[in-house]
Design brief:
Number of strands: 12
Order of helices and strands: EHEEEEHEHEEEHEEE
Helix content: 10-25%
Radius of gyration: 17 Å
Shape: globular
Bound molecules: zinc ion
Number of domains: 1
Strand content: 25-35%
Distance between the termini: 36 Å
Structural class: alpha+beta
Largest sheet: 6 strands, antiparallel
């Protein structure tokens, strides 16, 4: 096993998407439970051997920007502020199992420096490091996990400040007139704040 000193990002949290069976005692003992995400995780330095519990991930490169925008709530029809997280670059890791664990290990060694230098929004995010989520929630305390997709896991999303109805990422990022859709010629970016978080984020999610 690689020694931690060779790794650039040993402490990045990698969330395990599939449950570990009770009989795999070693994996259970070496991973930790995260109350915020309701998932177990290991640090990037310890990812070897956990491939079987991973779904495809995307690595996002810092710096991260909190973009404030607004949209019309579909429930109460009022205008509500929303927030979005924009990363400076990304690398999709679409392999599975051991190959995926290996890809994450390479990233932890510094391969992230090959990230596509292209700003993207994190969307349909299944897991955020709690310390990162805290930074988002300082601007929007309604930002939390909501059940928005049938047959799919909950993801972190905005909610209307008037009626508290959750706001689907699809309406913000993927609809033609979405306030933050890349195809929208007049996106709504009310303000941008650099977040004080210098580690990459590895998450099961999408991007826009
Ligand atoms: Zn509303």
């Amino acid at each position: 096993m690689q020694s931690e000193t060779n790794l650039k990002y040993p402490s990045v949290k990698i969330y395990l998407d599939l449950p570990i069976p009770d009989e795999d005692v070693a994996s259970l003992e070496n991973s930790q439970w995260c109350e915020t995400n309701q998932k177990r995780f290991v640090h990037a330095a310890e990812i070897y051997g956990y491939g079987a519990y991973l779904m495809p991930k995307i690595v996002f490169a810092p710096p991260f920007t909190l973009v404030k925008s607004e949209t019309t709530c579909l429930a109460c029809r009022q205008t509500t502020p929303v927030v979005a997280v924009e990363a400076a670059g990304y690398v999709p890791l679409s392999s599975k199992g051991h190959d995926l664990a290996l890809a994450i290990a390479l990233f932890a060694q510094g391969e992230l420096d090959n990230a596509l230098p292209h700003p993207v929004f994190l969307t349909n995010v299944r897991e955020y490091p709690p310390e990162f989520l805290k930074l988002i929630r300082m601007s929007s305390f309604l930002f939390r996990k909501y059940s928005l997709e049938e047959d799919n896991d909950d993801y972190f999303a905005n909610a209307c400040t008037h009626c508290k109805a959750p706001i689907d990422d699809f309406t913000l990022y993927y609809e033609q007139d979405g306030p933050l859709a890349r195809c929208n010629p007049c996106p709504i970016r009310r303000s941008e704040t650099k977040l004080q978080y210098s580690l990459p984020i590895v998450a099961e999610c999408q991007f826009a």
